[in-house]
Amino acid sequence: MVAGTACMPLDLASEAARVDTRFIWVGSQGLAGLVDRTDDAVDKIVAALVGGEKATWIRDVEKAASGSEVALAVKRNNVGLMRTSGGGRS
Question: Is position 42 within any domain?
Protein backbone atom coordinates (compact mmCIF):
# COMPACT_ATOMS: atom_id res chain seq x y z
CA MET A 1 0.00 0.00 0.00
CA VAL A 2 1.37 3.41 -0.97
CA ALA A 3 -0.46 6.40 0.53
CA GLY A 4 0.01 10.12 1.12
CA THR A 5 -1.50 13.08 2.94
CA ALA A 6 -4.77 12.96 0.98
CA CYS A 7 -5.53 9.78 2.95
CA MET A 8 -5.01 11.32 6.42
CA PRO A 9 -8.51 10.65 7.81
CA LEU A 10 -8.02 6.93 7.28
CA ASP A 11 -6.01 4.72 9.60
CA LEU A 12 -4.12 3.09 6.75
CA ALA A 13 -1.23 1.84 8.88
CA SER A 14 -3.63 -0.23 11.00
CA GLU A 15 -5.48 -1.51 7.94
CA ALA A 16 -2.24 -2.55 6.25
CA ALA A 17 -1.11 -4.37 9.40
CA ARG A 18 -4.51 -6.06 9.75
CA VAL A 19 -4.23 -7.67 6.31
CA ASP A 20 -0.45 -8.22 6.49
CA THR A 21 0.30 -5.73 3.71
CA ARG A 22 3.45 -3.64 3.54
CA PHE A 23 2.83 0.10 3.84
CA ILE A 24 4.75 3.00 2.26
CA TRP A 25 3.82 6.46 3.50
CA VAL A 26 4.55 9.24 0.98
CA GLY A 27 4.61 12.89 2.03
CA SER A 28 6.60 15.72 3.51
CA GLN A 29 5.34 14.99 7.02
CA GLY A 30 5.96 11.73 8.82
CA LEU A 31 3.31 9.41 10.15
CA ALA A 32 3.13 7.66 13.52
CA GLY A 33 6.83 7.15 14.08
CA LEU A 34 7.66 5.67 10.67
CA VAL A 35 11.36 5.81 9.79
CA ASP A 36 12.24 8.18 6.93
CA ARG A 37 13.94 6.00 4.29
CA THR A 38 14.04 8.69 1.57
CA ASP A 39 17.83 8.75 1.46
CA ASP A 40 18.15 4.95 1.30
CA ALA A 41 18.62 3.13 -2.00
CA VAL A 42 15.47 1.57 -3.44
CA ASP A 43 16.99 -1.92 -3.24
CA LYS A 44 17.58 -1.48 0.51
CA ILE A 45 14.00 -0.32 1.03
CA VAL A 46 12.71 -3.28 -0.99
CA ALA A 47 14.91 -5.69 0.97
CA ALA A 48 13.63 -4.30 4.26
CA LEU A 49 9.97 -4.61 3.22
CA VAL A 50 10.42 -8.11 1.81
CA GLY A 51 12.46 -9.03 4.90
CA GLY A 52 9.61 -8.21 7.24
CA GLU A 53 9.56 -4.46 7.79
CA LYS A 54 5.86 -3.60 7.88
CA ALA A 55 5.97 0.09 6.99
CA THR A 56 8.26 2.90 5.88
CA TRP A 57 8.15 6.59 5.02
CA ILE A 58 9.54 8.00 1.74
CA ARG A 59 9.26 11.75 1.08
CA ASP A 60 10.12 11.41 -2.64
CA VAL A 61 7.02 10.35 -4.55
CA GLU A 62 9.04 9.19 -7.57
CA LYS A 63 11.17 6.94 -5.40
CA ALA A 64 8.08 5.52 -3.73
CA ALA A 65 6.49 4.96 -7.13
CA SER A 66 9.34 2.83 -8.41
CA GLY A 67 7.06 0.01 -7.43
CA SER A 68 7.79 -2.40 -10.23
CA GLU A 69 10.90 -3.52 -8.39
CA VAL A 70 8.98 -3.66 -5.12
CA ALA A 71 6.11 -5.59 -6.67
CA LEU A 72 8.40 -8.16 -8.26
CA ALA A 73 10.38 -8.72 -5.06
CA VAL A 74 7.21 -8.95 -3.01
CA LYS A 75 5.56 -11.35 -5.44
CA ARG A 76 8.62 -13.62 -5.48
CA ASN A 77 8.53 -13.76 -1.70
CA ASN A 78 4.74 -14.05 -1.30
CA VAL A 79 4.50 -10.90 0.80
CA GLY A 80 1.29 -8.88 0.66
CA LEU A 81 1.46 -5.63 -1.31
CA MET A 82 -1.44 -3.33 -1.98
CA ARG A 83 -1.23 0.06 -3.72
CA THR A 84 -3.57 2.99 -3.38
CA SER A 85 -3.42 6.43 -4.94
CA GLY A 86 -3.11 9.40 -2.63
CA GLY A 87 -4.83 11.61 -5.19
CA GLY A 88 -1.88 13.65 -6.40
CA ARG A 89 1.59 14.60 -5.31
CA SER A 90 2.34 14.79 -1.63
Answer: yes
Query: Does the pLDDT of residue 74 top 80, yes or no?
Result: no
Smallest CA-to-CA distance from 82 within 11, 10, 15 is with: 15
Nearest to 58 by CA among 81, 82, 90, 14: 90
Determine, yes or no, domain membership for 87: no
Question: In terms of C-beta distances under 8 Å and separation of at least 24 residues, what long-range contacts does 36-41 make, across chains too?
Answer: 38/63
Distance (Å, rounded) from C-alpha 75 to C-alpha 25?
20
Interval 34-53 mean pLDDT = 87
Record the pTM. 0.67
Asked if residue 5 lies in contact with residue 90, where contact means CB atoms within 8 angstroms, the answer is: yes
| Range among 1-5, 6-10, 28-32, 83-87 rated most confident | 28-32
